[in-house]
Specification:
By secondary structure, the chain is mainly α. The protein has one domain. The protein has 6 helices and no strands. Helix 1 runs antiparallel to helix 3 and helix 3 runs antiparallel to helix 4. The longest helix is centred in the first third of the chain and has 30 residues. The mean pLDDT is about 90.
């Protein structure tokens, strides 16, 4: 890997960690005070609670760096649904773009995806030698 690839991986990893912590924080806040979240977000309770649960789950998976590409796809789809249902905003667009980035590039540095890929590569190498 070149220096720029390492730098890109670290930036992606930092972005993944920041996004994960933000998603967890927003979800905990919404789950702790659901009526306040309904008033602030302008969405019905039937949407706020499931979205908070999905945000929390995505945040935990992104924090661990496991299945980052799938979480990126789910994040982008969730934000697309939110924009289609409740209007376009800066934050949903930004999170959709971050989700697309994770979907295309993986979790970056400090992600479990890297270690899983290395294990899969070792298995493939052993199979080719046999």
């Amino acid at each position: 890997m070149t220096k720029s690839a390492y730098a890109r991986s670290r930036v992606t990893g930092a972005l993944r960690l920041i996004t994960a912590l933000w998603l967890i924080g927003v979800a905990v806040r919404s789950l702790a005070a659901p009526f306040q979240a309904v008033a602030e977000q302008g969405m019905p309770m039937s949407a706020v609670l499931p979205i908070a649960a999905i945000n929390f789950t995505l945040g935990v998976f992104l924090l661990t760096g496991f299945m980052s590409r799938i979480c990126g796809l789910l994040l982008a789809c969730l934000q697309g649904w939110l924009m289609a249902s409740y209007g376009i905003g800066v934050l949903p667009v930004l999170l959709a773009l971050v989700g697309i980035h994770f979907m295309l590039s993986g979790g970056g540095a400090w992600a479990m995806d890297i270690y899983v890929q290395k294990m899969q590569d070792r298995v493939r190498e052993k199979e080719m030698l046999n």
